[in-house]
Amino acid sequence: MAILRTKLRPFGAARYVGLVGFVVLAACLGYGQTTNSCLDCHSALPDPLGVTQEKFSQDIHAQKGLTCASCHGGDPTSDDPDKAMSRKAGWKGKIDHKQIPQLCGSCHSDPAYIRQFNPSLRTDQLGQYRTSVHGKRFAAGDTKVAVCTDCHSVHDLRAPSDPRSTVNPVNVADTCARCHADANYMKGYPIPTDQFAKYTTSVHYQALAVRGDLSAPTCTTCHGNHGAAPPGVDKVQNVCSNCHAFQAQMYEKSTHKKAFDAASLPGCVVCHSNHGISHPTDAKLGTGPDAVCMQCHTPGDRCDQARAGLQSGLSQLNEAIKNADQILRVAESSGMEVSEARLGQDQARDSLTKARVTIHSFRTDLVDQDIQAGLKIAAKNLQAGKEAMSERNYRRFGLGIALIAIGMVLAGLRLYIKKIERP
Amino acid sequence: MSSLRNVSNWLDERLEWDDLIAPLRKKTVPLHRLSYWYFLGGITLFLFVIQVLTGILLLLYYRPGANEAFESVQYIMTRVRFGWLIRSIHSWSANLMIFTAFAHMFSVLFLKAYRKPRELTWVSGVILLFLVMGFGFSGYLLPWNTLAFFATKVGTEITGQVPLIGKPLMIFLRGGEEVTGATLTRFFGFHVAVLPGIATLLIFLHLLLVQRLGMSIPQKLEVQWTANPSAKQEMKFFPNFLLRELMAWYAALAVLGALAAVFPWNLGVKADPFVSAPAGIKPEWYFLFMFQTLKLIPSKVWFIDGEVLGVLAFGLVGLLWLLLPFFESDQPSRPKRWITGLAVFALVYIVGMSVYGYLAN
User: Fold this and answer.
1) Percent of chain A with pLDDT over 70
2) Could you tell me the pLDDT band of residue A35, with boundaries at 50, 70 and 90?
């Protein structure tokens, strides 16, 4: 530095400018250099050891300021691999599969620690995991069952709200299916592997994956996530009732509830199935291939008669709504103002929906009340449509008369003009 | 007939009725193969009268205000006896009036009827056309439906592009920064009080000038008839021309009635300022050529904002259009051909851009 100072002395002020420039340049060159020496090497390594800066920067932990050493230990500030990965510096190497739940739980079960990053994040995941089928089997020494990283991924672990996260609602089913739909992997476990295939045909999957309705259920909605387990035969309606509350209330008071409980039948699942729940139609009440009642009941018995009555009532209301819709559509396309009746049609449709919900009470008198209410509204709307159509015809008739009258006046005027202009 | 004559005599004794209508009896209309174009002004006037009458009837039930306007028009359309007919005629008549006003203007332009001494007739007529478009713009919002709401939003935004006075003008028109119930109240005021007042005065002036200066005849014919006055052919205004005009009015009434009965004017859906604008929203057909032009101008032309440039250009063209007669030659034998060319171009441009705008996504 003394030599540099001596050499720069003749340049006076320029020397200071040069020194400042040097400092700025050095700072610029230094900027962006990582203090995480792990990535310097591992970004160049092939899988499974390879982790690039780009991949790790997507990880929620990296974004919150955690580094490789937070999980793996070691000294990431050292460029010397021996020092960086020395046991003395606490380096743990590859985390053993068996240690993963405990390692993750060391932070995620610590409310005081987690509060620093996200005060609303739950800290009972490890506790819940231990109650899950996965957790119990894991504790019994089964290393094939899922641990945290199997579902959440690792090194590019994203927050569940991120659509790219493996545990985002739209991706959960795919994540579960990685194991549960793999017949080879699931060999030895006494459960089927067609749940995902069935789920993709279900009304729930349609709502979630096709319509993008994030409130629609995926695997974890019914089975839980960290505490994942089958709901249990007698608890199925409790799971379904989280969303289908009215149906559950009706079912709870019904004769079927007692009968199903006595026969140890799984409530809702008896008629609707579980993973492959299709969109329920009135055909379920029928006698065709989609029918469910006749799977247990005898043709011609009292219940069969009630079933036929319910189906006929629903179909009558459906037909009445369609008829009113049709005439209102024609009236509207003819320019008639029928918005009030169109709005009324929504009420009729609501009655139909309500009747379909009330079916779960298995009481014909209650269902009939809703059907009659809907029929009354649909009849009123049909009448409004008919009146609009007859008004349209009346207008056109009036127009015809007016045009004849105008035509006669025009002819009269023409004749009068001829008369006064006659030479 | 005798009772009618008695009434006429009674009026004549008191008001000297015959002297009042004497100028009408003396008035003549030139008779030639293009005389039927003279009916257009009268039809426009007839449609204006229809507008005033149906407008007054609508006023009996219409309530301006964001919470009431749509419902009151719905009430007119569904509950008021013949309310649907009155509203449909009002809406169809408005559109037909704008169409006939445009047609009348172009007929005057092609027949060169704006020449000396009728420059002021042209000027008052063009201002009336602008006013009629103002009627259309202000009236369109009054039912307070979705299309009207967003069309007004876009329309007033374009006004806001005028340099210097644009923003204050937009706030004045809207009654604030946004299109709200205050805008509706203002537009109602413009539509039923301000514009009709100015329009009525201008219509009187326009008719007075037509009456004073007589009907123009095509230039070629003017030269021929000046050289040979015996070739001149005329028709009495009263009653011959007026009876024919009456026939045209009746025909217009028949068209209006048919349109109102077969295609009642749609009410649409009530405006909701909190929903996004429907896709592909467009203004009424008579603003479409300007709207489409503004859409086609690049966002920046040199250093000027494209929309500002468009608005300024339309303003300048409107002003020059108003002053067009003052560029015309005084000599009927030496007409300015470029004005006819310009008229052809304007007609093709307006029709072409309107069709393009209608078909464009």
Assistant:
1) 91
2) low
Give which of B110, B332, B114, B335 is closest to B227, Cα–Cα.
B332
pTM beyond 0.80, yes or no: no
User: What is the Cα–Cα distance from B113 to B126, expressed in whole angstroms?
Assistant: 13
The count of CB pairs under 8 A between chains A and B is 53
* Contact B80/A at CB under 8 A: no
Check residue A8 and give its pLDDT.
42
For chain A, how big is the Rg over CA atoms in Å?
37
The span from the CA of A293 to the CA of A95, in Å, is: 54
Q: Which two tokens stand for residue B172?
A: 């004045």
Out of A337, A403, A417, name the one closest to residue B243 (CB): A417
Strand runs labelled E in chain B:
28-30, 234-236, 300-301, 304-305
Q: How far apart are CA A86 and CA A76, in angstroms?
A: 11
Give A373 to chain B, closest Cα distance, Å: 25
| CB-based contact A417 B264, cutoff 8 Å | no
State the nearest Cα–Cα gap between B187 and chain A, in angstroms: 25
Which member of B74, B253, B266 has the closest CB to residue A406? B253
Confidence of residue A234 (pLDDT cuts 50, 70, 90): low
Would you state the pLDDT for residue B334? 78
The ipTM (two decimal places) reads 0.84
Mapped to the 3 state alphabet, what secondary structure does A188-200 carry?
CCCCCCCHHHHHC
Angle between helices A302-333 and A339-358 (to 10 degrees): 160
The verdict on a CB contact (< 8 Å) between A410 and B267 is no
> B138 is written with which tokens?
């202000």
Q: Which of A389, A395, A413 to mutate to test the interface with B (most CBs of B within 10 A)?
A: A395
The count of other CB atoms within 10 Å of the CB of residue B266 is 15
Residues in a beta bridge with B304? B301
Measured CA distances, A148 to A194, B73, B198 (Å): 24, 63, 78
Question: Which pLDDT score is estimated for A397?
Answer: 95
Residue B171 structure tokens: 């706030």
Residue B330 confidence class, pLDDT cut points 50, 70, 90: confident
Which pLDDT band, with edges at 50, 70 and 90, does A220 fall under? very high
Burial-class residue A136 by CB neighbours within 10 Å (0-12, 13-18, 19+): middle
pLDDT at A403 (0 to 100): 97
Quick one: pLDDT at residue A31? 44
Residue with tokens 């199997």: A150
Q: Residue A201: pLDDT band by 50, 70, 90 thresholds?
A: very high
Question: Three-state SS for A103?
Answer: helix
Of A337, A413, A421, the CB nearest to B78: A337
What are the backbone angles phi and psi of residue A304, rounded to the nearest 5°? -65, -40
Would you call B266 and A414 a contact, using CB atoms and an 8 Å cutoff?
A: no
Q: What is the DSSP letter of B336?
A: -
**How far off is chain B from A318, nearest CA to CA, in Å?**
27
Tell me, which fold does domain B32-359 have in CATH? Cytochrome Bc1 Complex; Chain C (1.20.810)
A421 contacts in chain B (CB < 8 Å): 240
Assess B78–A contact: CB distance below 8 Å, yes or no.
yes
Contact state of A410 with B251 under an 8 Å Cβ cutoff:
yes
d(CA A40, CA B9): 114
Q: How confident is the model at residue B1 (pLDDT cuts 50, 70, 90)?
A: low
Confirm or reject contact between B268 and chain A (CB < 8 A): no
**Best to test chain B binding among A328, A337, A413, A420 (most B CBs inside 10 Å):** A337
Q: Render the burial of A30-67: b for 16+ CB within 10 Å, e for the rest.
A: eeeeeebbbbeebeeeeeeeebeeeebebbbbbeeeeb
B264 interaction partners in chain A (CB closer than 8 Å): 335-337, 395
